[in-house]
Every structure is written in C-alpha cells, then in structure tokens.
Amino acid sequence: MTGKARRPARARPPLPAQxxxxxxxxxxxxxxxxxxxxxxxxxxxxxxxxxxxRVHPPAxxxxxxxxxxRKRDDSQWIALxxxxxxxKKGP
Length: 91
What we know:
The protein is of the alpha+beta class. It has a domain at 27-83. Helix content is 26%, strand content 11%. It has three helices and two strands, in the order βαααβ. The chain has a two-stranded antiparallel ribbon.
C-alpha cells in the first residue's frame, strides 16, 4: 500500500432525530427520507446542468438508495431545499 496513513475518524455527537433547519419566507430545508426517491431523482435529472461539476446528486433510484444506505446512523442526514407550498409565484 502506498500513500499517507489515514487519520482515525473523529467521533461526532449524534444529530437530533428532527434537526432544526432554517425556514425562510419562500423556501425551507428538510431532511430527505426514502419516500422522496422518485421526486428527488426526477429533479436531479432536470437540474444536471445547474449543479455539475460542483454537485453530483443521485440521478437514478438505485443511486438514491445507495446514498440513503450510506447514511448509516444518526450522525449524518441529507437535507434538501424545498419551496413553501403557500408561496405564490409572481407579483
């Protein structure tokens, strides 16, 4: 094996089950759940040009499932920005 030795991972305190996420007038952040798969994947495919090369969100159902599986415990969660339903577009 070559290269530098890896440092041991630092233990992080667990996050709360429902983290307090910022909420704005038009958008809010919320934790992603497995039931979001179809909508998340469809949105990710439609926004590739916007996100690449900086972000590579899962663009297929199997990729989404793998991403959710990687979230092994309560020390990590995935958030997404969502529009508030009551926000009306336009003037």
